[in-house]
Specification:
Chain B: It is found in: Cell outer membrane. The structure holds 2 protein chains of 2 kinds. By secondary structure, chain A is mainly alpha-helical. Chain A is built from 20 helices and 9 strands. Chain A is globular. Chain A starts with a helix and ends in a 12-residue tail after the last helix. By secondary structure, chain B is mainly beta. Chain B starts with a helix and ends with a strand. The chains are: A mainly alpha, B mainly beta. The interface between A and B is large, with 100 and 85 residues.
């Protein structure tokens, strides 16, 4: 009995000993992540957080694909080839087939807000210099402005068109980061007024403009001209023509000389970085490749190499509509034929006008079925198939913004001569033998709506397959006049706006969805 | 019995006194009464002495008896002991009869504790080795199918060694794991599948023929000894151990084939042409002739532009059988040997096996080699050491993908392939390869036979599952055991996408490799106390356990290979990505159990476990899991003795709590993670919100059980009724995306499973002539209901299939209303039961759910002389699923791929026609309509079935035939699995779990085998 007593005492003692150290025994820290609450407490991690924010732009839901391809598909530029079935719904404006960038942009905004919150708190040696601070804050504010601008132009009506339809306001405006559970649970935002969102974008861009340095090297990172150019575009959308013209002019003054000419336009599009670019979303290494289903190259072309119709790469899901081909000055026969190249009946471009821009379109392969005239703006320019930078802002746009701001109805800086001049600058550099042509002569006579229509047409041609068209129509309250075989969508139709993701409304009584959803 | 014993003792002493020192040898043989097979390892003792021996492998024994009237006592576990007088005999042959009551059979209840069936108080299902023996299935979980009431086993697909879904008493968790805990000889296994290129079920490491018994702990009160891991039940696997006596050997082999259950009846080239032309004609209204020509020219590419073939020429177009080209007759082979033996101090068991299991689908297979070594040694009467080591390695050729609608996935594309597409060119080369200049028509534009041929992917899994233990008898009634277990595995894989295939043509080949190793260390220290004081029997267990698991991995990928001959990464021009991975968790636990038994009539059990885990929030790292059980052996009461037809009756009741910790290792932590890249730099992003209050999911089960036996247990069985409540469900609770996060892991919501389980064992016929017919039947009915979610939600925002008041997996969809007889257009019901052509989200209703209402199995065994016929039916009822593959096969001309003949034959063609299949329409979307294969009642199918899971005919060769070859026992058998299925299912097979899109389907198997003992 004594022995048993001893044993049980030992056992009890052992158990007590082990359990007293239990708390420690089951403490394990992750090795592949850092604690959220203290993640942004070094300069290196602030830099990494900014890189993390940039990387959100590569998502296929934004500049990886959708922000470039959907504006073509939803409007009148893109025709779906039904090779993979992608864009079949967007081109036909089917209920629900629309932008879906909410999650990605709000995640990016939280990345940015957390970094902006952390920078002033940074307690490091050596201390943060003013230059470091400006570079960080400038980039973060540019990125936040871009995110909010894309959100508000996607999910809300654009200022000046709001009265036409039943607007439910802008998008939630959040300027502080979330890193605790309580903050997250309390975040039940409502939609800010559209004007307030634009005001915030203005404020961020002006701060970014002041803090960022001039564009000198690669436009993969935010810079002063990118901030100014985005400001010009935002102001144009906001019908704030004076500011649009002012900022367009700022960029033209310092970087206008980057405008491509008829001589180097096509070859420059084959460069990794377009010389005109003020800001590009960069895809540098092949690990960033979006791949054969959703990359820009695969979306727009079956070709791997320009001119080689025997080698099939991507899907070529979205190609120019017949009306866009007309504007581009391309005449094609046997569009959609599956006859092999070289044989009679194969798809062939029979004529092109003197617009150099149409040289970025050619007949694709029959490797995935029918051949169509395809855009070759994205051809794996970064050394790997399906790896291309997405251009967000380039200099040409500044000329066309300047032209539009000075000819728009209700513009406070109305100056049709200056507008014509900016337009002609573009056309002179896009049409061979333009100087002295009848085209120039008639362009010089453009005025009023004819001038405005020509600017719109030039925008359509210049930025085809770059993600402008749908927004250009939307911001002017125009109907989506689709090409034949599609059904037009009037501006008053609810399908102009996408749905706010349903999950965002569950549990947040403050948020209202757009009409029709 | 006790009285008889005492009496014989007395007698024995008396006899001994009378005749002193007359020693002589008695020899003989012990056979099983049922089949005449020798019984090795039978304990033969001269009654009243310690003199004795064990029978050898051939059942023979020799024992010296001291006097003429000695009585020999023959005893063997599971058999009725016999006493035979040696008076006047020199040789004794004995036939032992199986203990029909079987109530003295032991059940293992965890941590080395055993209890007889008579005294068990938990809801435990036992599956014997015999029930799963020689089944051509790589993993034991698959072999459990239909064997135990309340244990639902569903295969994801037909990949040998692939994932198996095991649910004990329904789904108890929404987002944490639902798989039970598997314990092999005390080692708690990690059953997570770490393979990248195929499914590698870790349970496939064990040769099922090495298993001695499987116990399934179903009620929380029994499982509570495993605390926070036991919410989904516990499966205890005991492997075969050595027996003292002459070394016995077994050798066995089986071989056979796997074959497709069926091939899908898809359209031939002519019907395909008609269908697609009709679809285009209905869409563009340009007539059949125009569209037939368009399809021939542009889609099927059977005729040059402008050349119109005649009807005879069309009729002559060949149809190519792509399904046949990717399916095959797979080989199944299994070879194994074992040796068992030892003496009273040391026993051992050695076994080795090789298994080959080729799927009937190219080139998927499974090859396994195992080695098992068990040793137990008694150092002194008090101290015993034991070691058990299972070494196993299996390799699998991986399919293109385990599922999914990839064009290059042969399992997806084979049935959907445009039937006019050639497989080979006339010169024997593959048709339509990239770069050949040939165009491969249709959406499914990959020559999948070439893909299967050219690509290669392999997955290898190496295992060491072993333990070492020391047991010390401190007192006769008190034992201390120190146990150390290791579950180590290394999973390696490589995949090579050949540059000749479409997916890797442009990138010139794609190579991927992975390596993942998991080290799962466990130690358990237990004290076991056993004491009988008068009519009170006590058994108590106290223990401490520590578990530490580390998981590490490496991966890499590259493309740009010089040619298909170069298949290793050092040849690749372009490294794409490298990855390294590390994660770990720790758990520390104390547990105890007390069982009390009064007179064998009144049984009581108390269990408690205190668990601490690194996975949970700083505020809730520890949890306590108590349980109580009680049993009443009613038949033992005096007043029941007169009820003769009743041989056994026991009532049980239990209540217990278990936990579920199956979440990711750091789910409670706020994290910022890396992995993003921009402009050549690495970035970090917030990845997870913290939840310091995160804790276990709680599972509380109330269980009532009734065990009964009638007519000397010729009819015996068990009925269980349970109520299983799951609380504090581990759930990813969404937050607004505007926070920068999608959600956080939280404890919210409640679930309930209620059900009835019946197990029935009957001896239908036991004729004098030796004919026997036994039936085992099991049935489980389970009712699952989501009781509560958080924040007053009636529906889980992230998952429409989780709805308060409905089972998990509720199907919430639109209702198909058939075809408008006038137009052939598909119609749906709106929420007000009116016809609509464009159903919207608001029209959805719950139409069923993905959990079976009842399921089970039926085993019949017929024996006559040496013959034995055994067949197992397994069934499921009340489950609905959408079959992704079938949905594609239902498109009926929407797009350029094939469809099922059934849909073609029954499609709407003429006004007034009554059918449920809409007219063919290119794209499938009529103007102002929706695709007819949109999710609706039309795309959810009942997957009820009864399947003849296995059928075995065995012949036990009589020992007289074997003696010349020194073989003790031998049996030959022929077996078939999945031979017959009763269902009305249009897809490939109703037995699947998940989406079924592009999966390797199940097969039927035929094997023959031989098993020898010597």
């Amino acid at each position: 009995m004594k022995f048993r007593y001893k044993v049980s005492t030992i056992a009890l003692f052992a158990a007590a000993l082990t359990f007293s150290s239990c708390e420690k025994a089951v403490e394990v820290d992750p090795r592949q992540s850092v604690d959220l609450s203290t993640a942004l407490n070094t300069k290196e991690n602030i830099n990494a957080a900014i890189t993390g924010a940039y990387s959100r732009l590569k998502s296929a839901r934004v500049y990886g694909r959708d922000m470039i391809a959907f504006p073509e598909a939803l409007a009148d530029n893109g025709h779906f080839t039904n090779k993979s079935g992608r864009f079949a719904n967007e081109t036909r404006n089917i209920h629900g087939a629309h932008f879906n960038n909410w999650q990605n942009y709000y995640y990016m905004i939280n990345d940015i807000n957390l970094a902006l919150d952390a920078i002033p708190q940074l307690n490091v040696v050596p201390a943060v210099t003013a230059a470091e601070n400006d570079a960080w804050v400038g980039q973060l504010k540019f990125l936040r402005a871009l995110a909010y601008f894309d959100l508000v132009r996607t999910y809300a009506y654009i200022p000046g068109t709001e009265g036409v339809v039943n607007s439910k306001g802008g998008v939630p405006l959040l300027l502080s980061g979330v890193k605790t559970l309580d903050d997250a649970l309390l975040r039940l935002p409502s939609r800010a007024k559209t004007a307030d969102v634009y005001a915030q974008i203005y404020a961020d861009l002006q701060d970014a403009e002041a803090k960022l340095k001039d564009l000198t090297l690669a436009p993969a990172l935010a810079n002063k001209q990118a901030a100014q150019a985005l400001m010009a575009r935002v102001a144009l959308y906001n019908k704030d023509y004076a500011k649009a013209a002012e900022y367009a002019q700022k960029v033209i003054t310092t970087h206008g000389s980057r405008l491509l000419t008829t001589a180097n336009y096509v070859s420059s599009w084959r460069n990794k970085v377009n010389p005109e670019s003020l800001f590009e979303v960069s895809f540098t290494i092949n690990a960033e490749n979006i791949g054969v289903n959703e990359s820009l190259q695969t979306s727009f072309t079956t070709l791997v190499v320009s001119g080689d119709r025997l080698q099939t790469g991507g899907w070529g899901d979205l190609v120019p509509t017949s009306t866009l081909l007309t504007d581009l000055g391309i005449t094609v026969i046997n569009q959609g034929s599956s006859i092999e190249p070289g044989k009679t009946g194969t798809t062939t471009i029979t004529a092109r006008t003197n617009d150099v821009r149409n040289q970025l379109y050619e007949v694709g392969t029959v490797g995935r079925g029918s051949a169509f005239v395809e855009s070759t703006k994205y051809l794996g320019k970064n050394g790997f198939v399906n790896l291309d930078n997405a251009i967000v802002l380039r200099v040409s746009e500044m000329y066309l913004i300047l032209a539009e701001a000075q000819s728009a109805v209700g513009s406070t800086v109305l100056d049709e001569a200056a507008s014509r001049s900016a337009l002609i600058t573009i056309k002179r550099n896009r049409y061979t033998s333009y100087a002295g042509s009848t085209m120039e002569a008639s362009d010089l006579l453009l005025a009023g709506s004819a001038l405005r229509n020509e600017i719109m047409k030039q925008r359509r041609i210049e930025f085809a397959f770059e993600g402008h068209r749908f927004f250009d129509l939307k911001r002017q309250g125009m109907d989506l006049t689709k090409s034949p075989q599609y059904t037009n969508v009037p501006f008053t139709d609810y399908r102009i706006l996408p749905a706010i993701p349903l999950r965002e409304l569950d549990g947040n009584p403050n948020l209202v969805n757009n009409e029709g959803y | 019995m006790r009285k008889v014993l005492l009496l014989s003792f007395a007698l024995l002493f008396a006899l001994t006194n009378l005749a002193l020192a007359q020693s002589r040898a008695i020899s003989g043989k012990v056979l099983a009464a049922e089949n005449g097979q020798p019984l090795p390892g039978v304990n033969v003792v001269v009654k009243g002495t310690t003199v004795g021996t064990f029978t050898g492998a051939d059942g023979s024994f020799t024992v010296n008896v001291a006097n003429d009237n000695a009585v020999l006592l023959f005893s063997y576990l599971g058999y009725v002991a016999q006493e035979i007088s040696t008076s006047g005999k020199t040789s004794i042959n004995v036939q032992l009869r199986e203990d029909s009551k079987a109530l003295s059979e032991v059940i293992i209840t965890g941590y080395g504790t055993t209890v007889t069936k008579r005294d068990a108080v938990g809801a435990i299902s036992q599956v014997s080795a015999k029930a799963i023996e020689n089944r051509p299935m790589p993993s034991l979980d698959k072999a459990l199918q239909g064997q135990a009431a309340g244990v639902l086993v569903q295969a994801n697909n037909g990949i040998p060694g692939g994932a198996i879904n095991v649910r004990i008493r329904g789904v108890g968790s929404l987002q944490a794991g639902n798989q039970p805990l598997f314990v092999v000889d005390g080692v708690q296994l990690n059953t997570r599948d770490d393979a990248s290129f195929t499914q590698s079920n870790p349970l496939a490491f064990l040769n099922p023929n090495d298993i001695a018994s499987i116990e399934v702990l179903k009620d929380a009160a029994t499982a509570a000894i495993y605390g926070a891991q036991a919410a989904n039940g516990v499966v205890l696997i005991t492997t075969k151990k050595g027996k003292a006596g002459k070394t016995s050997f077994t050798a066995s082999a089986y071989g056979g084939v796997s074959a497709p259950l069926k091939t899908l009846d898809v359209l031939n080239s002519q019907d395909y042409l008609t269908l697609r032309a009709e679809a285009r004609s209905n869409r563009f209204r340009t007539g059949m002739d125009t569209n037939r020509q368009w399809i021939l020219e542009n889609e099927m590419r059977l005729t040059p532009q402008g050349v119109v073939p005649t009807a005879e020429e069309i009729a002559a177009y060949t149809t190519y059988d792509w399904q046949d080209a990717v399916m095959r007759t797979g080989r199944i082979q299994n070879y194994e040997m074992s040796a068992s033996g030892g003496n009273d101090k040391t026993t051992f068991y050695l076994a080795g096996s090789y298994n080959l299991n080729e799927a009937m689908f190219n080139k998927v297979d499974f090859k396994r080699g195992t080695a098992k070594f068990d040793l137990s040694h008694k150092i002194t009467d008090k101290l015993t050491i034991a070691s058990s080591i299972n070494l196993s390695s299996f390799s699998q050729q991986a399919p293109f993908s385990t599922d999914g609608s990839f064009l290059g996935n042969p399992a997806f594309s084979a049935s959907l392939m445009m039937p006019s597409n050639r497989i080979f060119n006339d010169d024997g080369s593959y048709f339509g390869l990239m770069g050949s200049g040939q165009v491969f028509p249709g959406i499914l534009s990959h020559n999948i036979v070439a893909v299967n041929d050219f690509n290669e992917a392999n997955q290898r899994s190496n295992f060491v599952v072993g333990s070492f233990s020391g047991t010390y008898k401190i007192l006769p009634s008190l034992t201390f055991k120190s146990f150390y277990g290791l579950d180590y595995r290394l999973v390696q894989g490589r995949s090579y996408r050949d540059p000749r295939t479409n997916d890797a043509f442009v990138r010139k080949g794609l190579g991927q490799v992975q390596s993942n190793w998991n080290t799962n260390f466990l130690t358990t220290q237990t004290l076991n106390f056993d004491k009988k004081i008068g009519e009170h029997t006590f058994n108590a267990l106290a223990g401490f356990e520590y578990k530490h698991e580390q998981n590490e991995g490496l991966s890499a990928s590259a493309d740009g290979y010089p040619s298909p001959e170069f298949r290793y990464m050092n040849s690749a021009a372009n490294p794409l990505g490298v990855g390294e991975f590390f994660s770990e968790f720790k758990r520390i636990s104390g547990f105890g159990r007390v069982n009390y038994n009064f007179k064998g009539k009144y049984l009581l059990g108390l269990t408690g476990r205190y668990d601490g885990s690194s996975r949970f929030g700083a505020n809730n790292k520890f949890g306590f899991f108590p349980s109580v059980q009680a049993g009443w052996n009613i038949k033992e009461e005096n007043f029941m003795q007169s009820v003769e037809f009743l041989s056994f009756l026991k009532l049980r009741a239990s209540f217990g709590t278990t936990g579920n910790d199956n979440i990711s290792n750091f789910a409670s932590r706020g994290l910022a993670g890396s992995g993003t890249v921009y402009n050549g730099l690495a970035g970090i992003n917030p990845t997870q919100l913290p939840n310091p209050a995160l804790k276990w999911e709680i599972n509380q089960t109330t269980n009532f059980g009734l065990d009964f036996g009638f007519f000397n247990d010729r009819i015996a069985g068990t009925v269980e009724v349970y109520n299983r409540e799951s609380k504090d469900l581990l759930l990813d609770q969404p937050v607004s995306w505007t926070t920068g996060f999608g959600g956080f892991t939280s404890n919210v919501g409640e679930l309930r499973n209620r059900g009835i389980e019946v197990e029935l064992r009957t001896a239908n016929i036991m004729s004098e002539g030796g004919f026997k017919w036994n039936t085992n039947f099991n049935f489980a009915y389970n009712q699952n209901e989501v009781r509560k979610l958080y924040g007053g939600f009636e529906v889980l925002p992230s998952d429409q299939s989780v709805r308060v008041g409905y089972p998990v997996g509720a199907i919430f969809t639109q209702r198909y209303a058939g075809v408008n007889p006038a137009t052939g257009r598909p119609m749906f019901y709106d929420i007000n039961d009116n016809i609509t052509y464009i159903p919207v989200n608001a029209d959805r209703v719950v139409i069923g759910d993905t959990q079976p209402e009842f399921y089970g199995g039926l085993t019949n065994t017929l024996t006559y002389k040496g013959f034995e016929l055994d067949f197992l039916f397994q069934y499921e009822y009340g489950r609905m699923q959408t079959d992704g593959q079938l949905n594609f096969l239902m498109e009926n001309g929407n797009r350029a791929f094939n469809t099922l003949q059934y849909f073609y034959d029954n499609r709407w063609q003429t006004p007034g026609q009554i059918t449920s299949i809409p007219r063919a329409f290119d794209t499938g979307v009529e103007s102002s309509g929706v695709n007819h294969v949109t999710g609706s009642t039309r795309t959810f199918n009942k997957v009820d079935y009864i399947r003849l899971k296995s059928l075995t005919l065995t012949y036990n060769v009589p020992s007289t035939f074997l003696q010349f070859a020194k073989i003790n026992n031998a049996k030959v058998y022929a077996q078939g699995t999945n031979l017959f299925t009763y269902d009305d299912y249009k897809g490939y097979d109703p037995e699947f779990f998940g989406s079924a899109t592009g999966i390797i389907p199940q097969s039927k198997n035929y094997t023959v085998g031989i098993q020898l003992g010597f």
